[in-house]
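Tokens for chain A. Residues wanted.
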């Protein structure tokens, strides 16, 4: 029996939903006993001739001065030597503890987070592990365009889309219908708050979403895209990731929630490409089996995460000022959100439907049929030097107010008025 067969048996016993959802690649995946595996076994040796990285012979890096000078204050070993395939354990542990603390310390056993090379990479790993042409991927629409590339074009899944909004709230009925259309095995993507809607549901809505998911017979992997975790500005909205609600009382025979998060937005570190994958724990053996498969996929693609970025993330997580600094930036964005919301409320409701937005970085508006989203975008660009994103398939416009100075928000609203009045 090969290593992959052993891992599959372990998953079938402890994480049946994960095992039932595995793609052909996922079933074949097992971290090989090659150089990284053997080097890890030899890490405490007095003489270690396993890893092909230049050191001083005592485990310290020898970076060129032109590179080293830009990383003052970061552990040189972390910054300039290969990172472990699944990430440094201290960073993984610190991140997991912070996520749990921000969620209010839920009593839910979870795996130690695995480091990935950004949130897109995290989702790609889930696609490789669980998605094939027999998989149905359920996602609200509109959604982040990369989902279609990752799950549809790359992994060749059937994309099942349902309208995001219904009556000014998350479309739970559409979610139920989408789940009901799954043929055999499925992946559900939840991005709350997210891109492009900027919508965070209430706790009552979250309870309805969780109930809808639990009613599905499975097998189902729930990819919780928490890219914008913490960026919520309106009172009365659910303040923690829905991942924790899905994990409470989860039936691992049918469902596997996976939390996808990272430093990009949570640490306001857009260039970092450091993200994490976390799932409910089913015991050390099952967690190790799933980790082995993920390490196989990481090793075969990006190799490992960026050492300099990991070093900066490590330093940020250890900073006593981290949460207060985040709160300052959140307050800044909340002010922009409030100003924009007031400005967009002056638009003609008969021609522009501004969807409710209370989190993330975005506001989404659907235009009347008499208007064309791409034409409106072009006129804003060419006549008013205002850039927005058009979604022609939804006849919608997205505004990323995270990138707009407070003083420029009235100019954006005025430009919208001018274009609409002239159309």
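Reply:
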């Amino acid at each position: 029996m090969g290593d992959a067969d052993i891992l599959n048996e372990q998953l079938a016993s402890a994480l049946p939903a994960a095992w039932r959802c595995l793609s052909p690649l996922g079933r074949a995946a097992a971290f090989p006993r090659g150089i990284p595996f053997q080097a890890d076994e030899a890490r405490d040796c007095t003489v270690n001739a396993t890893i092909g990285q230049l050191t001083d012979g005592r485990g310290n890096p020898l970076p060129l001065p032109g590179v080293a000078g830009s990383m003052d204050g970061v552990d040189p070993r972390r910054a300039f030597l290969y990172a472990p395939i699944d990430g440094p354990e201290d960073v993984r542990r610190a991140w997991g503890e912070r996520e749990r603390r921000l969620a209010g310390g839920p009593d839910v056993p979870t795996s130690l987070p695995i480091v990935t090379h950004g949130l897109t990479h995290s989702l790609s790993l889930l696609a490789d592990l669980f998605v094939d042409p027999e998989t149905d991927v359920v996602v609200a629409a509109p959604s982040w365009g990369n989902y279609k590339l990752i799950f549809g074009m790359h992994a060749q899944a059937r994309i099942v889309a349902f309208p995001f909004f219904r009556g000014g709230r998350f479309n739970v009925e559409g979610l139920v219908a989408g789940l009901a259309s799954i043929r055999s095995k499925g992946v559900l993507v939840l991005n709350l708050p997210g891109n492009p809607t900027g919508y965070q549901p209430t706790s009552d809505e979250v309870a309805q979403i969780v109930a809808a998911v639990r009613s599905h017979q499975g097998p189902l992997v729930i990819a919780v895209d928490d890219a914008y975790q913490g960026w919520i500005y309106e009172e009365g909205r659910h303040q923690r990731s829905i991942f924790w609600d899905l994990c409470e009382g989860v039936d691992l025979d049918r469902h596997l929630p996976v939390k996808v998060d990272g430093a990009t937005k949570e640490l306001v570190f857009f260039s970092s490409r450091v993200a994490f994958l976390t799932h409910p724990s089913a015991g050390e053996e099952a967690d190790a089996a799933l980790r082995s498969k993920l390490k196989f996929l990481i090793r075969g693609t990006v190799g490992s995460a960026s050492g300099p970025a990991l070093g900066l993330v490590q330093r940020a997580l250890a900073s006593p000022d981290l949460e207060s600094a985040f709160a300052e930036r959140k307050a800044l964005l909340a002010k922009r959100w409030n100003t924009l919301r007031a400005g967009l409320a002056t638009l003609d409701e008969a021609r522009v439907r501004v969807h409710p937005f209370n989190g993330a970085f975005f506001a989404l508006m659907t235009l009347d049929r008499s208007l064309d989203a791409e034409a409106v975008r072009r006129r804003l660009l060419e006549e008013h030097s205002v850039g927005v994103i058009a979604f022609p398939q939804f006849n919608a416009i997205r505004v990323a107010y995270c990138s707009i100075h407070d003083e420029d928000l009235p100019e954006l609203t005025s430009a919208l008025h001018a274009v609409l009045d002239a159309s």
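Residues 99 and 312 are 18 Å apart (CA to CA). The chain has a mean pLDDT of 94.
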